Amino acid sequence: MIERIFGLTERGTNVRTELTAGVTTFLAMAYIVVVNPAILSSTGMPVAAVAAATCLIAGLASIMMGLTANLPLALAPGMGLNAYFAFTVVKGMGVPWQIALGCVFLSGVAFLVLTLIGVRALIVKAIPRPLLHAVAAGVGLFIAFIGLKDAGIVINDPATTVALGKLTSPTAAITVAGLLLIAALQAWKVQGAILIGVMVSAVAGIALGLGAPAGPYDPTAIAATAFKLDVGGAMSIGGGLGWTLLEIVFVFLFVDLFDNVGTLVAVTSKAGLTDEHGHIPRLNRVLLTDSCATIAGSLAGTSTVVSYIESAAGVAAGGRTGLTAVTVGVLFLLTLFLAPFVQAIPTAAAAPALILVGAMMMSGLGRIDWNNPAVAIPAFLTVVTIPLTFSIANGLAFGIVSFAALKLFTGKAVKSDWLLYLLAILFILRFIYVAQI
Q: Is 20 exposed, middle or buried (0-12, 13-18, 19+ CB in 10 A)?
């Protein structure tokens, strides 16, 4: 039955290899069970509920991906988008987390519709690839900055805006030690380095009295966030279908779309699963699964779900079929029973993971042509404005507007760029709108 479903022989693999690859991928991305609740809890969402939702959705989405697309691709709530959800939408815009979940739901529906009618390919073609890499790096800096701030390593300063905190404080000291531990483990190519570092740091933090007491064991903790989304409230943001709602949904949609495309290309190429033209097999099934997972995630109580680049770890271990993804999903579902205890993990343990994940997101900068001002300037503006304005949307806006303007001013604009210019005009109108409120 397994052979018939996954075609192991055809792809030159076996059950043992696929199971091993699944465990490898799970260990590489299991940190999300700790980090996602640490970020979303800043909105007032219960830690145990978010942890349970994270495990449940990551499990079901990965299993669905394995069974429908037969690719070794695992899914979970996305890093970067969870930060945007928490720090920009909820804390920055003052949107209640229930309404923010409604926005996630709407973005999932929009992504589903765009996939079904084929607009996805049009959007993918319109956005310059350098900006895709720049957004990923900017989000990485954003996440790392949040981790440094949570750890007390970076603090507010009225004279210089930011300054170095007291590294001798328990939280900062444990974060620094955790950073060194994870970095060393990664240098030694230890699978699950981030998870191991988080757990060791958590033990140290709890021993120093930094963590909250673990809640009573109750796998139904997810009830605190499940079906609490407010779609009606989301539809009424900014007076109903206003700029604010469009901006939130667009960022969720945009980052989700390109995060998946980038991950798909990287993972399927590494696995040798693309055809002679570089096309990804069952692409529509992959995108449909992702959009359905995002919708389900909003219902369960977590931010946008995306394909994880950590899936490449499983591919490196020999994973070639959906059985790898199914294995990851089953392990996440088993982890669901430990979710209520995540609230005992102190900030000092999660902060190193945020910082190191941010560092790993810098790799795309090497693919940008920094010798070409028409590319380098928009890319730089994208990277730097995301963390400094605490907004992914602002980074996207600066990048797309400047890229389009430089193409126009250098006489390189062509008719096929019409969608890029349409997006640039919309972002300019957004700047005007924001300046008036």
A: middle
